[in-house]
Amino acid sequence: MSKSELRPRVFVVGLIQPGDVVLTTTPEPMSQTIRKFTGADISHAMICVATSSVIDSTGDGVHARNLGRIILELGCAGHVLRPVKPLSIDQLRSVLSFARASVGTRYTMTGAAKSVLAGFVAGRRQFCSRLVAQAYHEAGVNLVSDADFCHPGELLKSTALVEVPNVLRNLSPEEEADWRENIDNVQAMRDSTNALLQEARKLSPEIESLNDIDAYLAEHPEGDDQLVQALRSSRYLELWRDEFERNSWQYHIAMMEGHNCSEERKQRYCEGLLADEELCQNRFILNHAGYVTLNTLHPRQYFALMVELYDILTQFHARRIEAATAWLERRGLLETTLPELLRPHTPEWFASLRTWNPKQAAMTEAAIQAAESSDVCSVCADDPARDYALVSMPAAGPGTLRLCDDCFRIRSLDELMRPF
Question: Which CATH class is domain 3-170?
Fold first, then answer.
């Protein structure tokens, strides 16, 4: 046994990037069988989607998990692979979007067993290596000869991937005790998602992922009450409270300054959060816009609740970004930049508004077309109107409006604004 195997090992999260393929194994008998059958030292595959976050397919289905909490037991291998030809930004976003859209999809033991055979038709259910290969195939990158049926060993040997060195480190005895006591906090999200999907599948066995619920409900309004009850009973709408209580220091600069974790850990967290934000637009904003559109076209209580949920998640995410930015700026690790305000009714302004609230953007566009002038009020299309900026920048959207005097008086009761 080599020195590196004398202690359990963990991944050096800072070396692993979104899009990387993470391969692992465990001492379990099933894992040993897979390794023996495929001739590889690994039995499981995952995709890194953000700092310390991976998505994989296990017996629980497709879910996210915390890479930083994964322990490789004695004698268990771990590899991190990266495309030989770097992905373009669009390709990377495609890979990550595919993985996230698959969350909740059920696991297929049969599909996994057939992954080393040929001549079978792939179903919609997932297993770990298929999820990875299909995500890349969706982005136009073929990691293996058959993305529908492949095993982790094929990913390890893929000529399209290269191994990232030095991604593992030994876990000290002190760290091990702490790591094994701390639960994987993402498990609550997995349990809640599965509970919601279990109830949804009573309405239609064809539902696999959360996206399938949306498609089903758009066509079947009679399922709204049952799905709303499933949302509530699964605690899906409440999980953000647990996250806030568990990591409240991440949401305010004063609490971050006073938190007892090391400066090094805070810096890693802040830099990782901002790197993820730069790579991919806040998915909470995109989901909010999607549910606004769905609820406009197909009014459902379920969709309305999801709009409210993603409004909250967007606001809390913005608070994390603000706190992390401020912490780095205070230490001279990040250059201070002022938010750019967009002039109302410009193409850039409409693009920003559509990303957050496509319904409001469409209403303003219609008002402008009816008035045959872009100088009218963003809300009622009256003229004259003036430009205003919100004193507190919103979590999403342009943060500026063109308002007539009446609309200004109404809006300014709830939102402080200044002339722009």
Answer: alpha beta
